[in-house]
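If I may wish for something, please sit down with the protein I am sending here and say whether C-alpha coordinates and residues agree:
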Amino acid sequence: MGTKRINPKQRGFFNEKAKVWDEISVHDSSKVEYITDILSIKGHERVLDIGTGTGVMIPHYEARLVNGSIVAVDYSENMIDVARTKYPESEHPFVSYVISDVYDLEYCSEFDLVVCYSCFPHFVDQPLAIKILSRALRKGGRLAVAHSDSAKKINGIHMEGGVEISNDFLPSMERLKRMMTDSGLSVLFERDDDAYYICVARKE
Protein backbone atom coordinates (compact mmCIF):
# COMPACT_ATOMS: atom_id res chain seq x y z
CA MET A 1 0.00 0.00 0.00
CA GLY A 2 2.65 2.51 1.03
CA THR A 3 4.72 2.32 -2.17
CA LYS A 4 1.75 3.70 -4.12
CA ARG A 5 1.31 6.68 -1.84
CA ILE A 6 4.81 7.96 -1.27
CA ASN A 7 6.98 10.20 -3.40
CA PRO A 8 10.25 8.29 -3.98
CA LYS A 9 12.05 11.54 -4.81
CA GLN A 10 10.94 12.85 -1.43
CA ARG A 11 12.51 9.90 0.38
CA GLY A 12 15.70 10.38 -1.61
CA PHE A 13 15.74 14.06 -0.64
CA PHE A 14 15.64 13.24 3.08
CA ASN A 15 18.18 10.43 2.77
CA GLU A 16 20.56 12.79 0.99
CA LYS A 17 20.12 15.56 3.56
CA ALA A 18 20.11 13.40 6.71
CA LYS A 19 23.72 13.95 7.81
CA VAL A 20 23.38 17.75 7.66
CA TRP A 21 19.69 18.01 8.59
CA ASP A 22 20.33 19.27 12.12
CA GLU A 23 22.39 22.10 10.64
CA ILE A 24 19.85 23.20 8.02
CA SER A 25 16.67 22.57 10.02
CA VAL A 26 17.04 24.15 13.46
CA HIS A 27 14.15 23.89 15.92
CA ASP A 28 13.57 26.43 18.70
CA SER A 29 13.81 24.26 21.82
CA SER A 30 11.48 26.54 23.80
CA LYS A 31 8.79 26.16 21.13
CA VAL A 32 9.27 22.38 21.04
CA GLU A 33 8.92 22.39 24.84
CA TYR A 34 5.67 24.33 24.52
CA ILE A 35 4.33 21.75 22.07
CA THR A 36 5.43 18.86 24.29
CA ASP A 37 3.72 20.44 27.30
CA ILE A 38 0.47 20.57 25.33
CA LEU A 39 0.74 16.83 24.70
CA SER A 40 0.27 16.24 28.47
CA ILE A 41 2.47 13.16 28.64
CA LYS A 42 1.62 11.34 31.85
CA GLY A 43 4.86 9.44 32.39
CA HIS A 44 3.75 5.87 31.72
CA GLU A 45 2.58 6.18 28.14
CA ARG A 46 3.47 4.47 24.91
CA VAL A 47 4.38 7.11 22.31
CA LEU A 48 4.53 6.72 18.52
CA ASP A 49 6.73 9.43 16.99
CA ILE A 50 5.91 9.61 13.28
CA GLY A 51 8.44 11.20 10.95
CA THR A 52 10.97 11.23 13.75
CA GLY A 53 13.71 12.47 11.42
CA THR A 54 16.88 12.94 13.44
CA GLY A 55 14.98 12.48 16.69
CA VAL A 56 14.14 16.09 17.56
CA MET A 57 11.27 15.10 19.85
CA ILE A 58 12.93 12.15 21.58
CA PRO A 59 14.63 14.00 24.48
CA HIS A 60 11.45 15.98 25.12
CA TYR A 61 9.46 12.76 25.48
CA GLU A 62 12.15 11.14 27.61
CA ALA A 63 12.14 14.04 30.06
CA ARG A 64 8.47 13.34 30.78
CA LEU A 65 8.36 9.54 30.74
CA VAL A 66 8.89 7.42 33.84
CA ASN A 67 8.60 3.94 32.39
CA GLY A 68 6.78 4.41 29.10
CA SER A 69 8.18 3.82 25.62
CA ILE A 70 8.87 5.65 22.37
CA VAL A 71 8.61 4.05 18.94
CA ALA A 72 10.36 6.40 16.51
CA VAL A 73 9.32 5.90 12.88
CA ASP A 74 10.68 7.34 9.65
CA TYR A 75 10.74 6.18 6.05
CA SER A 76 14.25 7.60 5.57
CA GLU A 77 16.75 5.02 6.73
CA ASN A 78 19.48 7.65 6.83
CA MET A 79 17.42 9.85 9.13
CA ILE A 80 16.90 6.85 11.41
CA ASP A 81 20.65 6.21 11.37
CA VAL A 82 21.30 9.77 12.56
CA ALA A 83 18.62 9.53 15.26
CA ARG A 84 20.01 6.19 16.43
CA THR A 85 23.52 7.64 16.63
CA LYS A 86 22.24 10.51 18.79
CA TYR A 87 19.95 8.34 20.93
CA PRO A 88 21.18 4.72 20.80
CA GLU A 89 18.88 2.10 22.28
CA SER A 90 21.69 0.94 24.57
CA GLU A 91 21.65 4.33 26.32
CA HIS A 92 17.98 5.19 25.79
CA PRO A 93 16.01 2.10 26.86
CA PHE A 94 12.63 3.74 26.25
CA VAL A 95 13.42 4.18 22.54
CA SER A 96 13.08 1.81 19.59
CA TYR A 97 13.30 2.60 15.87
CA VAL A 98 11.24 1.50 12.88
CA ILE A 99 11.98 2.26 9.23
CA SER A 100 8.57 2.46 7.56
CA ASP A 101 6.28 4.64 5.57
CA VAL A 102 3.20 5.77 7.48
CA TYR A 103 0.93 3.96 5.02
CA ASP A 104 2.54 0.59 5.79
CA LEU A 105 2.02 0.80 9.55
CA GLU A 106 -0.35 -1.83 10.94
CA TYR A 107 -0.54 -0.82 14.60
CA CYS A 108 -3.94 -1.24 16.19
CA SER A 109 -4.92 0.18 19.60
CA GLU A 110 -1.31 0.13 20.82
CA PHE A 111 -0.41 3.74 21.65
CA ASP A 112 -1.48 6.40 24.12
CA LEU A 113 0.00 9.20 22.04
CA VAL A 114 0.82 9.54 18.35
CA VAL A 115 2.76 12.64 17.27
CA CYS A 116 3.45 14.03 13.81
CA TYR A 117 5.92 16.83 14.51
CA SER A 118 7.18 18.77 11.51
CA CYS A 119 6.28 16.06 8.99
CA PHE A 120 2.58 16.16 8.08
CA PRO A 121 2.96 18.13 4.80
CA HIS A 122 5.01 15.27 3.38
CA PHE A 123 2.14 12.77 3.60
CA VAL A 124 0.76 12.37 0.08
CA ASP A 125 -2.66 11.13 1.26
CA GLN A 126 -3.23 13.08 4.45
CA PRO A 127 -6.76 11.82 5.29
CA LEU A 128 -5.56 8.22 4.97
CA ALA A 129 -2.57 8.96 7.19
CA ILE A 130 -4.90 10.29 9.89
CA LYS A 131 -7.05 7.15 9.66
CA ILE A 132 -4.03 4.87 9.99
CA LEU A 133 -2.65 6.81 12.95
CA SER A 134 -6.06 6.95 14.62
CA ARG A 135 -6.23 3.17 14.35
CA ALA A 136 -2.90 2.96 16.19
CA LEU A 137 -4.38 4.75 19.22
CA ARG A 138 -5.93 3.13 22.25
CA LYS A 139 -9.31 4.46 23.33
CA GLY A 140 -8.69 7.83 24.95
CA GLY A 141 -5.34 8.20 23.20
CA ARG A 142 -4.28 11.44 21.51
CA LEU A 143 -3.10 12.27 18.03
CA ALA A 144 -1.12 15.48 17.51
CA VAL A 145 -0.08 17.26 14.34
CA ALA A 146 2.32 20.05 15.25
CA HIS A 147 4.73 22.58 13.78
CA SER A 148 6.75 25.22 15.59
CA ASP A 149 6.10 27.74 12.81
CA SER A 150 3.03 29.03 11.00
CA ALA A 151 1.38 27.09 8.19
CA LYS A 152 2.15 29.99 5.85
CA LYS A 153 5.86 29.86 6.67
CA ILE A 154 6.05 26.06 6.44
CA ASN A 155 4.26 26.00 3.08
CA GLY A 156 6.51 28.77 1.78
CA ILE A 157 9.66 26.89 2.80
CA HIS A 158 8.46 23.81 0.96
CA MET A 159 7.55 25.76 -2.18
CA GLU A 160 11.14 26.96 -2.35
CA GLY A 161 12.74 23.74 -1.11
CA GLY A 162 13.17 21.93 -4.40
CA VAL A 163 10.98 19.80 -6.64
CA GLU A 164 11.03 16.89 -4.19
CA ILE A 165 8.99 18.78 -1.58
CA SER A 166 7.58 21.76 -3.49
CA ASN A 167 4.02 20.38 -3.36
CA ASP A 168 4.11 19.34 0.30
CA PHE A 169 1.68 21.63 2.11
CA LEU A 170 -0.11 21.81 5.44
CA PRO A 171 -3.90 21.79 5.07
CA SER A 172 -6.03 24.53 6.55
CA MET A 173 -6.78 23.95 10.23
CA GLU A 174 -10.46 23.44 9.39
CA ARG A 175 -9.53 20.78 6.85
CA LEU A 176 -7.26 19.02 9.34
CA LYS A 177 -9.98 19.05 11.99
CA ARG A 178 -12.38 17.45 9.52
CA MET A 179 -9.84 14.70 8.87
CA MET A 180 -9.62 14.14 12.62
CA THR A 181 -13.38 13.98 13.18
CA ASP A 182 -13.86 11.78 10.10
CA SER A 183 -11.49 9.30 11.76
CA GLY A 184 -13.41 9.20 15.04
CA LEU A 185 -11.33 11.77 16.91
CA SER A 186 -12.49 14.74 18.97
CA VAL A 187 -10.38 17.88 18.81
CA LEU A 188 -8.97 18.88 22.21
CA PHE A 189 -6.67 21.74 21.26
CA GLU A 190 -5.91 23.86 18.23
CA ARG A 191 -3.58 26.75 17.55
CA ASP A 192 -3.03 28.23 14.11
CA ASP A 193 -1.22 31.56 14.14
CA ASP A 194 2.07 33.21 13.21
CA ALA A 195 4.03 31.10 15.71
CA TYR A 196 2.49 27.61 15.67
CA TYR A 197 0.32 25.12 13.84
CA ILE A 198 -0.97 22.56 16.34
CA CYS A 199 -3.96 20.25 16.51
CA VAL A 200 -4.47 17.61 19.21
CA ALA A 201 -7.41 15.20 19.13
CA ARG A 202 -8.56 12.27 21.25
CA LYS A 203 -9.87 8.88 20.18
CA GLU A 204 -13.33 8.34 21.62
The CA atoms of residues 62 and 92 lie 9 Å apart. The chain has a mean pLDDT of 89. DSSP finds eight helices and seven strands in the chain.
